[in-house]
Amino acid sequence: MTLNNLGLDKLGITRAERIVRNPPVESLIEDIVLNKEGKIGMNGAVMVDTGRFTGRSPLDKYIVDEPTTSDNVWWGSVNRKISEEIFDELYEKVVHFYNQEDNSNTYIFDGFGGAAIDHRLHVRIIAKKAWQAHFCHNMFIRPTREELLNFSPDFTIINASNVYNEKFEIHGLNSETFIIFNFQKRIGIIGGTEYGGEMKKGIFSVLNYMLPMKGVLSMHCSANVDTNGRNTALFFGLSGTGKTTLSTDPNRPLIGDDEHGWSDDGVFNFEGGCYAKVINLDKDAEPDIYNAIRHGALLENVCYDERTRIIDFTDSSKTENTRVSYPIDHIENSVFASGKPSMGPHPQILVFLTCDAYGVLPPVSKLTPDQAMYHFISGYTAKVAGTERGITEPVATFSPCFGGPFLTLHPLRYAELLKSKIKIHQTKVYLVNTGWNGGSAASGAKRISIQNTRAMITAILDGSIEKSEFKTEPVFGLSCPQSLTGVNSEVLNPRSSWNSLDEYDKQASTLGELFTNNFKTYGKAVSYLKQAGPIKNHKEIAI
After folding, report:
1. What is the pTM of this model?
2. What is the pLDDT of residue 4?
């Protein structure tokens, strides 16, 4: 295989000699061990450490400011500008690294982002570490031999994790680490961090930019279907809300666990695998993930006994963000494992998950289209008091569209697409609070039980929730069911579940103000949606 045949010379990579393209996973595992990048652990899974970075480095991620992006990108703390000149300088540094004659392998993964043929992105990832190639093999959609023959990349990421930007201060950048995307040249470069998630989320950011331009909604969510391949449901939620747990259902095959597109033809997974947290992983509580850790899986930053290779999933001494990547067919109850593409028909159900540590939001409510846009743009959850030093009260987190770190366009662009699609397909949208009830987390109140939450999800999916009487709650004007099979009716009305109505009203006012202030940050373009948010005089509304 030559440089010219693959077009690497067009990238400036002219001296790399030992090119390994889309090798079988067995070869990658062998190279990982021989290169001393990692070790074989439980059930044949590979274990590696990602070095200094055990998570993404959002302050080091940049987008090149050029004519095609200048007026389209949602510039700010998430999408930081960088000049074409600085990109070109660092790009030359990356290419020089690959042109060194050190007799090492250059790994190439060619594959796809997106299971839908009409909308998939032809992705090329170039890396020097075998485990990074293994990660890409797991996480992206693997091509057939026939698809590889005439493969031409739409977007290329060159991973040079051993390269650092010593001139970052002169360049006005955050650190010597850099993750930069040039949409005009359709190239991304990574330096100074080994963390595999930068490649995965990088391609997600690219799809978040390209797909909405042609009317396809890109989404940070999980998705499943019923056993007949119908009744698609999407689950949106930030970390700790239960997105993975609640979308993993023995009676509903999984389309995907993290990133999807919604086109005129239906829903499709962006990925060919899953990237799951394994901190405190319990085989009884999360059997699908536990059983997926076998030959072909790749574990990151887990702690284990050097002699026995037994993993201690409770050990967070390296990081709380211990991870495993694996091909999606490691989940036996998945659409792909049944021999079908990771796709589903237009969703009938959308579930927005939040973990409200203030104890204000109702456990389950039905949203109007405008409320759906409001809560989609808000992307709210709250940290539990006491989980971090110095935190004595709940801490609100707002992540637009439940995927703020990966949005490249203004949140309204995604929200308008969402509204259009739920209107066309008569999709029902529900807000489910998996947080606290009867008081805030700081008060010692209990979290809503998983049994109650699962019963709510079941009622949503089988449609029985629509048979309930609905009333409007007093804080956000949300429509709440008054009774559901298998759910204690007392928890369905958050205000009446509190011992002190005055304390509830105080917390409600606090949370409502947080929502209002956060929504202002998105500018005048979304101001017309404020009526779908908190009700100022909520004390006057009876439920």
Report:
1. 0.94
2. 60
